[in-house]
Structure formats: structure tokens, C-alpha cells
Input
Amino acid sequence: MTTTLAPPDVAESFRRDTAKHEMTVLHDDGLYRHLRFRSPENGFYWFDLVTWPGVLAINGDMAGYMFARLTDMFEFFRSGAFGSDRINPGYWAEKIRAGSHVKEYSEERFRQLVTEDAEGSAADYPGLMDAVREQILNSDDIVYEDSARGLLDEFEHGASVTARCTCGGIREGISETEATGWRVSHPATAPSGSGRHIVTTGRVEGFRFSDTWEWDLSEWSHQFLWCCHAIQWGIGQYDAHHGQARQPAAQIETVELPA
Ligand SMILES: [Zn+2]
Output
């Protein structure tokens, strides 16, 4: 799969949501820490970071998660910061022990996958992209995953019917309705003496989306990405409070959690 990048709009909304946040150190004893971040004006978007050996918990207005990996989880999140956003949702999600959902259906991703798949066959099926836009991409049903998948299952474009008559008459590339009409009208227009007219029809399949059940239509949830930013930013505030830009630990250490 492609590398997952955090949409920059989450970073922006995090900055906006926490513009007036201040840190209160409720507890700070080695690896036992309890930090609160909130605006003095209101409780919107407040969050707490709590650590004890081997664990970091974030909880607040947006969501809550518990991560476990290194003895000092602040070190884990400092050293695991990648990219311009300095968050690493894919790796960090693997270290979650409990919490709110991390992924959710993405209409944007659905649009992207549908468009890419249809474009691959557009040359073989004239009008396909217009039909996809009209019947799927412009539909209100793609707001929810179940109904969006339903549209994919039902969609077909470019199907046609071939009708043949025992007299040798044939019509190709017509619709079901045209075939039915031809079955009725054809004997009257056929040359006399051409015998009995028994019409059979065969269907030529059109374009359909295939194996869409394999499509992963989810992306990182806004809540999860927001909390990733919150952890990263919160640790930065804590480090600044201690007056040092801390270096990543030289040694990566795994903690044994109690059974
Ligand atoms: Zn005929």
C-alpha cells in the first residue's frame, strides 16, 4: 500500500484548536507524569498526557488512547517523529493497547479508488467516466461506506444484447428493450418465406467494478491524527518547560509489562 501521510488539515486544525492551550504539570516524578493542556478560557479540546513506566495515555475532549512500547514513552514519541508533521500514525497505531477508533471510512479515498479503477477501463467502455460520475460520485449515498459499496456492486456500464433469429436475422449491441421490441417486430419485416422466427438473446457484460470487497476504504480518523499531534506537541511543551531540547535515547529499550 501507499505510505500513509497525515492530511495537513489535521495539523492545522490542531494548531487552531489548541492556540490558547497552556500546560499544567499536575505530577512530574521521573517516568510518572501527569500533564494537562487546556485553554484558560474554556474546556474545548483539553487533553491530558499521563505516563508511567512503559505506558503513555492521552485522554481528553477529542478521544483517548493508551500506548505501550518503551520504558519512557516520551522517548518513544520523540524518536518516532518523522516527516514534516513529526507524527508517525502507522507505527504509533501498532503500539496502541486501548482506545478510541483509529480508522474510519473515507469518502475521499472511495472517490479516489473508484476513479482510478474506472479510468483503467475508460478506453474500452465509451461514456464510462460520465456514468461513474453520474451514478456514483455525485450520489449522496457515498457518505456512508455500506451504501457506497452498494453503489459499486450495482453499477454496470456498457452492457448490451445480441438478438439472433432462426431465420438468420441478427441485431448486435442493442439494449434489452430494443431486443424485446425486435423480437415482436422482426417477423413482420422479414422476407416472406424465410420460415419460422424464433428469436434468442445473449447478453454481453458491461464494465463492472470487481473485487471491491478487497478495497480498504478507510483512513486514519481525524481524532487519532489529532491525538498524535497532541502527543507530539505536548511532549515539546514539557521539554521546553524543563528548558532543554531532549535528545532521542541512544538505546531503544523494551519494557516488560506485568502479566
Ligand atoms: Zn427471423
Summary: Residues 165, 167, 169, 186, 190, 197 surround zinc ion (CB under 6 Å). Residues 160-204 form one domain. The chain has eight helices and eleven strands. The first strand starts at residue 22 and ends at 29.
